[in-house]
Specification:
The chain has helices spanning 4-9, 16-23, 45-55, 126-143, 169-173, 209-219, 223-241, 287-301, 304-318, 321-324, 328-344, 405-416, and strands at residues 12-13, 32-39, 64-68, 73-77, 85-87, 106-111, 114-120, 201-208, 250-257, 271-274, 277-278, 349-352, 367-374, 382-389, 392-399, 422-425. By secondary structure, the protein is of the alpha+beta class.
């Protein structure tokens, strides 16, 4: 590994997604997400701190702080002490402030059996962060005296980082054929009464994967398509209860991991977003019809050619010569406005499903379940995320709304579909969420 003095002189250009997430950063908003592992044994915070200290050097893309240049933000290796393991807090995914916490953009928490990692989205997407988190958990279990091998998704912390893990995969796969997604029609916003700053209401539902898979299969769709359809159905009903004169489309932002189509070892961001949408102004849709729309939309638009054209359009926007010459203090408000118009206005919410969290068989008995939380949205509404481990799918609704309509009706619908649901929440009255 390079000497410390040399590493401190390095700097990393933000990738296409990192540029956006840094530009829309505000005092009361950051694009933050959290992964948690609920362990079988009570967490030892000293062992966890040793694991963090051993793991961070293997992941230089996470061991950075952000710097503000004249025209763009950029990353530098962070020479400050830390990051330090902390006892967990009641309101997760707090905004990042670049000059606080020694500039660290990752956080580590523990509470009883739970280990949590929070990441500023400019660093990495969920797929990259899960490699980091899986490796950290393996190192932690070794610190606890368990023999855990390296393997797929668990990197060897004794070897130097691979240069490919830091690549900007967007730039690598950009071609001459470009396509920029237009600004979609304004969608029903699914908002409500905001909570006081900063109150993040989190509701988790735990469902058996085998029941979920069987129900999705009965409709001829995948689990992701099934849950996407269920969420669209619930939000459509939320809008219908308002009895609007001109109902708006209901659309979800679904992040897609690009690595299966464009091979890359990058641990940075490498995702695009697709937009399944139901327009109630065309008439009523049954649930099977909603699933059919989602299924065929996803199969039509998630393909190598279209995704490569979209990522090329995004890269061209970032590398536009005129945009590069605009000072950052002027550029950030323009990019923030663009995000509100193209990244918030056309959507009713976000749903992300990174899939199954897999570990070596030696590691599996030590983890009870996995959890995921998306931080607050730019306006008061709930985001949805899910992750599975073994036969348990954990589905989280998190947001700054006082109302519980979306999550309550979503889990009630799954129950009516014959799927067993166990609900937990950090709200004061969680029993009312389902019954």
């Amino acid at each position: 590994m390079a000497p410390r003095e040399r590493r401190e002189k390095q700097w990393y250009k933000l990738d296409n997604a990192g540029v956006l997430y840094s530009a829309i950063q505000k005092e009361n908003y950051s694009a933050i997400y959290r992964f948690s592992a609920v362990m079988e044994e009570r967490v030892d915070p000293e062992a966890l701190q040793r694991a963090v200290d051993k793991t961070m050097p293997r992941f230089p893309g996470f061991a950075v702080h952000i710097k503000k240049g004249a025209f763009w933000y950029y990353f530098e290796p962070n020479p400050a002490p830390g990051p330090f393991v902390k006892r967990d807090i009641s309101n997760p995914c707090q905004p990042v402030r670049f000059r606080e916490d020694n500039g660290w953009l990752v956080r580590f928490y523990y509470y009883e059996h739970r280990i949590s990692l929070e990441v500023f989205h400019a660093l990495s997407d969920g797929a990259g962060a899960l490699v980091f988190f899986r490796t950290l958990l393996a190192v932690y279990l070794r610190e606890m005296g368990h023999a855990i091998p390296n393997g797929p998704g668990i990197l060897d912390v004794e070897e130097p980082p691979h240069r490919e893990e830091l690549e900007d995969a967007y730039a690598r796969y950009a071609t001459v054929r470009s396509l920029r997604a237009g600004i979609g029609k304004k969608a029903f916003q699914n908002t409500g009464t905001p909570e006081p700053f900063y109150t993040l209401n989190v509701t988790m539902g735990f469902v058996p994967v085998d029941q979920l898979k069987a129900r999705a299969k009965s409709y001829g769709v995948s689990i992701t398509e099934y849950l996407t359809g269920a969420l669209l159905k619930v939000i459509l009903e939320n809008q219908a209860r308002e009895e609007p004169r001109h109902p708006k489309p209901v659309a979800l932002a679904i992040p897609i991991n690009l690595r299966p189509w464009f091979p890359s070892e990058t641990l940075r961001n490498f995702i695009l977003t697709v937009r399944p949408c139901i327009d109630p102004s065309l008439g009523e849709y049954t649930f099977p019809e909603i699933l059919s729309q989602v299924h065929h939309y996803m199969r039509l638009h998630i393909n190598r050619q279209e995704m490569q054209a979209l990522l090329t359009g995004n890269v061209r926007f970032q590398t536009n010569r005129a945009l590069q010459l605009i000072p950052i203090w002027l550029k950030n408000p323009v990019m923030a406005l663009s995000y509100r118009l193209a990244g918030t206005r056309p959507y009713s919410g976000t749903y992300t499903n990174p899939g199954a969290f897999t570990v070596p068989e030696e590691m599996a008995p030590h983890i009870r379940r996995m959890e995921v939380i998306l931080g607050q949205a730019t306006n008061p509404r709930v985001h949805c995320a899910s992750i599975s481990y073994g036969n348990t799918m954990e589905i989280t609704f998190a947001g700054t709304l006082q109302e519980t309509d979306t999550e309550r009706e979503f889990f009630r619908f799954l129950v009516r579909e014959g799927i067993h649901v166990k609900v937990e929440s950090n709200r004061s009255v969680q029993s009312e969420l389902l019954f």
